[in-house]
Design goal:
The complex is a heterodimer. Chain A is an alpha+beta fold. Chain A has 6 helices and 6 strands; from the N terminus they run βαβαββααααββ. In chain A, the strands form 2 sheets. A 4-stranded mixed beta sheet of chain A has the order 2-1-3-4, covered by helices on one side. A two-stranded antiparallel ribbon of chain A has the order 5-6. The longest helix of chain A has 13 residues. Chain B is an all-alpha fold. Helix content of chain B is 70%, strand content 1%. Chain B contains 3 helices and 1 strand; from the N terminus they run αααβ. The radius of gyration of chain B is 27 Å and the shape is elongated. The chains are: A alpha+beta, B mainly alpha.
């Protein structure tokens, strides 16, 4: 696989989880260095594109314009890398001391996302806009 | 030590310190800026000189403002005044110096392209997203 910098990134996220929706909103308001698109994993477009992959609804996935995909903890790193503010940090997270911890953290966060979501107050989402439900 | 001697020592010390610091800044700042404006040597020199001129003006202006002192009756008082002033001047010079170094550092970090490749290689290959404008292929 090439290491050419991606030109666009598509984030395939779990729209049924509050934590994921909030993270998606957070990323959508960050200043990004590459265009970032979002695709709900349950949407017809995602189903049509990725129905052969049985895991695309389970793990966070980031796809570039050539179909190269980052899955799970790597996808979280790619979301950070897309932002101006955290690009450097995303590289730092690969240091031998940090990488295993970061991997465990994102893996744990992802597999416990429904638990974490249960602790968050519901936000109302209307397309790109998410506001706390009154 | 008389009041006059103390004034004289202060003036000489202030100008010398500013001069030495500015020279350090000029020499070492050049390296930083050459890195930032690697495609434009003249630009690096120009920015470097402008920064150093600003440094001179700030420092000398501040040193001259500190110059005036209240009358010290004895030699001890005059010496105390002198030492306090030099201390304040050095602290201020240090502060301005570090601000300057920070500016150089920030300028250098601005076009750092070593982070432009993804932090991790792609995990797998999936169908790429459709490119707008190519979804309906012409016959």
């Amino acid at each position: 696989m090439t290491t050419r910098p991606p030109q666009t990134l598509t984030v395939v996220y779990d729209e049924t989880c509050e934590l994921c929706r909030r993270c998606r909103h957070w990323l959508s308001v960050q200043e990004t260095l590459v265009p970032v698109e979002f695709l709900a994993a349950g949407s017809p477009a995602a189903r049509e594109r990725y129905e052969d992959l049985d895991w695309y609804k389970v793990e966070l996935m980031v796809v570039n314009e050539r179909g190269e995909a980052w899955v799970g903890p790597a996808a979280f790193l790619m979301c950070m890398w897309a932002t101006r503010r955290y690009r450097k940090l995303s590289h730092r997270f690969r240091s031998p001391a940090l990488a295993p911890m970061i991997e465990t953290f994102f893996h744990g966060l992802s597999s416990n996302r429904s638990l974490v979501s249960g602790m968050l107050r519901e936000h109302r989402c209307d397309g790109d806009n998410c506001v706390p439900a009154q | 030590m008389t009041q006059e001697t103390s004034y004289l020592i202060y003036a000489v010390a202030a100008v010398l310190l500013t001069g030495v610091l500015a020279r350090t800044l000029l020499r070492n700042g050049k390296v930083f800026l050459a890195d930032v404006f690697s495609d434009n040597e003249g630009m690096a020199d120009a920015v470097n000189h402008l920064l150093v001129v600003g440094f001179y003006m700030l420092n000398l202006g501040y040193a001259f403002m500190l110059f005036r002192t209240e009358e010290g009756a004895t030699a001890v008082e005059a010496t105390e005044n002198l030492v306090t002033k030099l201390g304040v001047l050095l602290l201020s010079l240090g502060l301005i110096h570090f601000v300057n170094v920070t500016v150089f550092w920030k300028l250098r970090g601005r076009n750092d392209t070593s982070y432009n490749t993804p932090p991790v290689p792609a995990t797998t290959l999936v169908p790429p997203p459709p490119v707008p404008g190519t979804m309906i292929s012409p016959i």
